[in-house]
Structure formats: structure tokens, C-alpha cells
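ok trying this again, last paste got cut off
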Amino acid sequence: MNTSTRAEEESVTGSAAFKSGYLFFVTGNNRALKQCYRITPEKGTATSLKDFVINVKDFWNAANTESGYSFTNVPGDVTSVYILGNVPENGSTSEENIRKITTLNKLKEIVIPVTAQNDIATITMDGIGNVTNVLETANLKKVANIELTPFSSRVEIASITGGGDITSFKISGIYISHFYENVKLNQDAVNELFKYTSNNEEENYTEDKKYAMMADIASPGTSLGGNKLKKQPENNKVWGYQFIPDKQGESIRIVIKLTDIQGSTSYQSPQYLNIRGFYSNSDDPTLPIKLKRGKIYNLGESITFDESNLSPIPNPDDIDLTIKVSVKEWDVVHVNPII
């Protein structure tokens, strides 16, 4: 596995790690950012509250417990606390730029690139909690409970299996399509969906290109997943890819490029297996579910295909199709008998 792709790794369970970030005290209706604390990496700057800096080791070892991390002399008009974790340290998400932002709404407009989400263990995350009384009666002891949710989601493929007439095949590439390159923290997409097509494969998905982490491409003369009819990564790992859902929950797609397909008949090469979305057992299998942040969409071993699922066209656009039907009237033919 090279460092620019998240393919062929362990299936993800548990939770991601909070490594660094920012903590904001937020006031009422205008959602002003009253104070901003930089939470530095463990080997970064030491805690200095007068400089609004907290080392993550000091913060997390307390905040992730029942007792929590306590501040004193907090402005009384603070109504909520917002935490942003694991953001890229450059561009609009550099510390210099983040500290200049004065409202939560403006902060939520900063852009997170999908290319910064390549490490599932330290994915961008955020969360907000309202300030409430520690006791039921009004008092000056307050608490904010915050659950951090990963900003990205992930799709995992455990295996790809041929069936029907197909007796053998090779996988030369697995491509994620219909994803956003950049999404704001408020989940507004910045760019159009990036779509895989046959003429942009080498331009965008190869190892040294922008979307390398969104694809696995076999080296010349090799294939993915071994030589059996059931293709899978070694050591019970999965092919896994991070993506960022937008507000509308637009479904990503997966394009699997197949070659050397063998069966009782000959097959043109390459052929494509186009996965146009996902559904759960309770859903209409013709309609893709809306995708949400913080989810692991695990396809497991459910990708089984036969010759009817093959297409010579990679990732064709869906169409709206209206069917109109009529029944041809009887055609009465007047004839004479042959006696």
C-alpha cells in the first residue's frame, strides 16, 4: 500500500483519534467566537492558557473522562462550545487564518479538501455542545458535552466475485466516482462532482496525481485481488476509500475495470462493473440511499456479478425513461377457402 491511497488496510471499527485542533467559546444568537484555543499536537507547543494554547495530551486526558477539562473565568455570555479537530495546517485552515475568524458561521465556511482525509485514523472531525447547568438549579457551575463526528465517510469493499457464465477475470482498477474534491465545514460543496470517465483515468487517478487516494490501479502485467474467482485483498483486509458527503447526501459510485474475462463465450476487454449507489435491506434497491458523514459504508462480500452486469461503458449517466405501450389491433384478412 502506498501512502497516497487508503486501499488494502484493516476494516475500520471504533473511533478516530483527536490529534490536534481548536476549541471555541461561542456566544448567543450571532454565534460570535468569544475565544479560540489552539489544541496543539502531543509533541507540539506546551500548554499556555494565557496564550490560548492547550497541548492535546493535557486536554484529551481530561476532556475524554467523566471529570472533563475545566476552564475558569469564562465569559458568562458563552452559550456553547465548538471543537474542530484534525484540520490541515495550511491554506484556509492554517492557525493564522482560523484565529482571524470571528463567527461560527464564517468558520463553517472554511474548505476541507478530500485529499486531506487520506488517513482514516486522524480524520477531520467537529462537534458542538450547549452550555448547561451542572446542577438542576441555576448556578455558576456549567458543563458542555460534545460529541465529535468525523467530517468524512468511508466505503469498504471486502471482495469482488464473479458468477454466472464467468469462470475467470482480472481487476485492473477500482475507481471512486461522483465525489467532491472540496467541501465546506457546513457541508456545502465547493466544486462539481468529480466523475470517473474512460478518458480521465490516467490524468487524475494515477499514483502521482490528485485523486490517487480514490483509486487502486494495478501495475502493468498485474491485477488486483489475486487469481481466484473471488478477488480480495490479502490477510482479510479491505479496499477502503474516504470521501466527504455534502448536505444532499449525493451517493458516490464505484467503477471496477475488468479485463481477461473468460466464460463460455468471448468478452470484449475491458468491461466495467458500474456500482451506481448503495441500499440497505429495508430500502428500495433501485434508489441509492443518501450518504451521511461519519459513516463506514461496508459492502462486505456483497459485490457478486455475472455477465448481465457487465458494461463496455464506464460510469454512464443515469437517464429518465418513460415507457409508452399500446396493443396492435387485430388485422382482419378476408380470405376464400380452397376446396
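PB: full thing came through this time. The helical segments are 56-63, 95-100, 104-107, 201-205.
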